Amino acid sequence: MSLRYTVDAVVLDIEGTTSATGFVVDVLYPYSRSRFADLLTQRAEDPAVSRAIAQVRELTDTPDADAVQIEKTLNTWLDEDRKATPLKTLQGIIWSEGFARGDLVSHFYDDVVPALRAWHSAGLRLYVYSSGSVAAQRAWFTSSPEGDLLPLVSGLYDTENAGPKQEPESYRRIAAATGVEPSRLLFLSDRPGELDAAVAAGWHAVGVRRPGEPYFEQGVGDHAQAGAFDEISITSSRSTT
Questions:
Q1: Which helix (DSSP H) or strand (DSSP E) does residue 173 occupy?
Q2: φ, ψ for residue 216 (rounded to 5)?
Q3: Sign of the C-alpha dihedral, residues 132, 133, 134, 139?
Q4: Rounded to two decimals, what is the model's pTM?
């Protein structure tokens, strides 16, 4: 039985929801790890890199940390799968360039792209809210195996422009930015804490449970759940009478 919703917009998590966490961990993480040193030493004056370096120093209370120390911190956070904003910023820069060079092609589950195209065609607005940086999200959707999917997406949100993913205020901020009433927003994610935060902000939420994903065994708490996007039927409230 499919889940049915009438909303104006769908907000998508990436890892474990649209795409395999394993791809991110096994392909993208090593790619960024091998390039942190060059980025920190050769492009430390770039505004985005400089800001991220300052954020690492602030978060670790090490105002004099050099490139070697910062790289060590980034790799530690990577090992811990920390959702630290400066880590995601620097990964986003590296991944964006990797996608642009053709070194990387993003991953989407087979059921995702057809659903996104159908929802977009039906008049739904699609947004992304991921712990990965906006730059990484843009590169991810631009460099899919099925071509550039970015035209399907109306906006991108991360922990820097929206806030932490397990805090209701972040979802209120996104609702305000999109101009969509919270009750007309549907969030899809595999993480129970994120689903809880979205519902606390007045959104609808569906837990996406895919076998082999890290949160599959944990489940999605009291939230509605789907194993794939084709189990979710969504119509635009703007098309109803």
A1: helix 168-178
A2: -60, -50
A3: negative
A4: 0.89
